[in-house]
Amino acid sequence: METFITDTPVATVIFLFTIITSLYAFSNPTVYGKFMLHPYSISRGERLYSLITSGLIHKDWMHLFVNMLSYYFFAFQLERTFVSLSSWGHVQFGVLYFVSIVLSDITSILKHKEDFWYNSLGASGAVCAVVFSYILFYPMNKMIILPIPIPIPAVLYGFLFLGYCWYASRSSRDAINHDAHFYGALTGVFLTIIFYPDVAAYFVHQVIGK
């Protein structure tokens, strides 16, 4: 634990705080209700804080587990990568995460601004940003699409994931905010390229070289 705090303090704090706030919200309906993203209110200048707080709570145990498992596999390595490239790496990781929480929900707010009963929550948008930032640095690392136990290159996983999110956001009725996943992933890519412009050429070289 000490190593995580020393090497990846931002990723560690986000990880622990998200778990704590989610567990607390499970047993506190008032906090749960206030923290959820409510596009109807936000579009009218109210509950703007929920742009951030909605990423700190989850629908249930499984939702929390899946997001934090994905976060665990990629976030700590990504912060270490940022730090190895810049003295501002810790700050950049925090900026990427929290900006992605906000930007991943913009399309949901626009789409549901007149729907009083629509709410959204979870760290999925920011987690997708972390995963896709990781893919830029490690495109040929192996990843698994559950429940299929066949490792595939991260770059292929990325394209398949984006394609699925694009399709599902237009045709799925499963109550999952696929738009947040899609735009969170793109936000992660764009912010990483802003922080490290050379990563785009590095990504292409790694993919073509393999």
**Average pLDDT for all residues:** 91
User: In order across it, which strands form the biggest sheet?
Assistant: 1-2
Q: Order of SSEs, N→C?
A: HHHHHHHHHEEHHH
CATH topology: Rhomboid-like fold
Anisotropy-based shape = globular
Q: How many angstroms separate the termini?
A: 36 Å
Describe the structure.
The protein contains twelve helices and two strands, in the order H-H-H-H-H-H-H-H-H-E-E-H-H-H. The protein has helices at residues 2-7, 9-26, 29-35, 39-42, 50-53, 61-85, 89-103, 106-111, 124-137, 154-171, 178-195, 198-209, and strands at 142-143, 152-153. The mean pLDDT is 91. The protein has one domain: Up-down Bundle (Rhomboid-like fold), CATH 1.20.1540. It is an all-alpha fold and 210 residues long. Strand 1 and strand 2 form a beta hairpin. Strands 1-2 form a two-stranded antiparallel ribbon.
What is the structure about, briefly put?
This protein is an all-alpha fold and 210 residues long. The protein has helices spanning 2-7, 9-26, 29-35, 39-42, 50-53, 61-85, 89-103, 106-111, 124-137, 154-171, 178-195, 198-209, and strands spanning 142-143, 152-153. Strand 1 and strand 2 (152-153) form a beta hairpin.
What labels describe this entry?
210 residues; Rhomboid-like fold; mainly alpha; 2% strand
Write the layout of secondary structure elements.
Elements: H1 2-7, H2 9-26, H3 29-35, H4 39-42, H5 50-53, H6 61-85, H7 89-103, H8 106-111, H9 124-137, E1 142-143, E2 152-153, H10 154-171, H11 178-195, H12 198-209
Antiparallel strand pairs: 1-2
Helix pairs in contact: 2-3, 2-6, 6-7, 6-9, 7-9, 7-11, 9-11, 10-11
